[in-house]
Amino acid sequence: LHAQCLQCLQCPHMDLCHVPASRERGWYLALMAPNVKGPNYAWLDPSRLYCHPQGLQDCVADLLQPFQGDAIDMVAGIDAMGFILGAAAAATLQKGFLAIRKAGHLCVQTVAQPYTDYSGREKVMEVRTDAISPGLRILLVDQWVETGGTMRAAIELVERLGGVVAAPPCVPTGVAAICMENSEGGKWIQERYKCSHCVPPRLQPRFDQHQ
Predict the structure, then answer these.
(1) CB within 8 A of 175, min separation 6: which ones?
(2) Cα separations (Å) of 140 from 10, 41, 158?
(3) Cβ-contact 143, 56 below 8 angstroms
(4) What is the largest CA-CA distance in the chain?
């Protein structure tokens, strides 16, 4: 990662104006903040990346690059941080955006799917039943894929409603996140769907080990 970006991690305040002269793919990953609150929290906080105008723009561009030319009808983001990247991707593609919510937030007819999140907690996610018609091609976006349980549940919801996490001619597509860890669940998704993430191969082992 760019040395000047790494220096930002030492500063109490973000420099939202600094952009490295050479913007390699993933340069913005250094803007993310490490966990300082202990094991009950995720090991890394990407939200600082979203505060940086060029960082967010380049992150979304990198996520969408593998899907150039793919037939995508709608972008769906997963509650909650997937809303940020999903909505940004939808705006860039000029497509609609669908929020896949945690249970209990939608006041309309929904279909629900239980899942286990990265921390091992049992949860339920829901999506409204009238937003996805049979054959609708969906790009699913979340902030992070660690164990894969949350993303897999979202895929199951979309497909139960007849949506397609694929594009003609039957080329698997449709899953994007800043990082997709090489966990058992992460590999299951990557083996079955066309996936996009921002972590360079040389850094993937460090992300897998939460370093």
Answers:
(1) 139, 140, 145, 151, 155, 165, 189, 193, 194, 195, 196
(2) 34, 24, 9
(3) no
(4) 50
Helix-, strand-, coil-residue percentages of the chain, each rounded to 5: 35, 25, 45
Cα–Cα distances in angstroms (integers) from residue 132 to residues 76, 135, 153, in the given order: 10, 8, 16
- Stretch (H or E) spanning 57: helix 53-64
Domains plus CATH for the chain?
33-206 (3.40.50.2020)
pLDDT, one tens digit per residue, over 168-182 is 555 556 999 999 999
Contact 169, 201 (CB under 8 A): no
Q: How far apart are CA 144 and CA 80, in angstroms?
A: 11
Q: What is the pLDDT of residue 167?
A: 55
Q: How far apart are CA 81 and CA 49, in angstroms?
A: 12
**What's the confidence (pLDDT) of residue 16?**
80
This prediction has a pTM of 0.90
The candidate with the shortest Cα–Cα distance to 66, out of 199, 169, 195, is: 195
Band of pLDDT at residue 142, cut at 50, 70 and 90? very high
AA identity, residue 2: H
Smallest CA-to-CA distance from 42 within 145, 182, 186 is with: 145
pLDDT beyond 80 at 15: no
